[in-house]
């Protein structure tokens, strides 16, 4: 896993604005979770988490989460043989990005999809869970949002009696969502780790009253608290794929940990931390948007309560 992380880290450092096609083709990350028979690497959740970790650290806008995790999982778990044979090789080679619409209010009647799906992760191929099926459909309207977090493009999709191609029965929607939560948790843990590193680096360099601010007890305690959060988030993210309960734990903990780490990074940097030129505000924006992407940390805790207390 360390070699995979190092490779992705090096690539994103050298080519932060690389296209999805280049990123996917040169590193093979698009087909990481695609079975070998469809041209993928046949990797598992650990490999996915390693890439997601570095995507989060780099604040990359690559559509890894929605394409290589959600769309691939939806096709692998709910797609029929024809759908897998047609679409998985295309996704594995990075020829297009993709996204998945969950739990929508869209209606599917006589093969026609109608309704609106707000705040969808951006992707060229659109897969939708609707009417008890997984379907493929081309939106009638695709309207990008102007979001606070520019590193995570979101789109409003509208379907107006749009022809939908059935890909298979909806049997694993929650499992697919849980895999997305697990990958997002790895992104969040990676982002939190980078915030901690940036705060520590600055605390060693910035001097006040003749010595580095990192030598002051208040800063030491602040950084120690964040270090504990980051290590705990790492453990939660690595175990997230094991069950729906673990995914909910990771979703709740990693979301809050990233928000706290991003906020404390700004505090340690002081005035420079709130300037547009510094990256600190970008991490806070990503942490804030990530915390609402699937469910909020509070929503994950409510899901956990249902598991623990039975409803």
In brief:
By secondary structure, the protein is α+β, with helices and mostly antiparallel strands. The chain is built from 10 helices and 9 strands. It is globular, with a radius of gyration of 20 Å.
Structure write-up:
The protein is of the alpha+beta class and 311 residues long. It contains ten helices and nine strands. A hairpin with a 2-residue loop joins strand 4 and strand 5 (133-137). Residues 24-94 form the Acyl-CoA dehydrogenase/oxidase N-terminal domain. Keywords: FAD, Flavoprotein, Oxidoreductase. Residues 183-295 form the Acyl-CoA dehydrogenase/oxidase C-terminal domain. Belongs to the acyl-CoA dehydrogenase family.
Key structural traits:
single chain, 311 residues, alpha+beta, Butyryl-Coa Dehydrogenase, subunit A, domain 1, Butyryl-CoA Dehydrogenase, subunit A, domain 3, 7-stranded mixed sheet, two-stranded antiparallel sheet, 10 helices, 17% strand, acyl-CoA dehydrogenase activity, FAD, flavin adenine dinucleotide binding, AcylCoA_DH/ox_N_sf, AcylCoA_DH/ox_N
Mean pLDDT: 95
Question: Tell me about the biggest sheet?
Answer: 7 strands, mixed
By CATH reckoning, the class of the largest domain would read Mainly Alpha
| Number of β-strand runs | 9
Fold-level CATH name of the largest domain: Butyryl-Coa Dehydrogenase, subunit A, domain 1
The second-level CATH architecture of the largest domain is Orthogonal Bundle
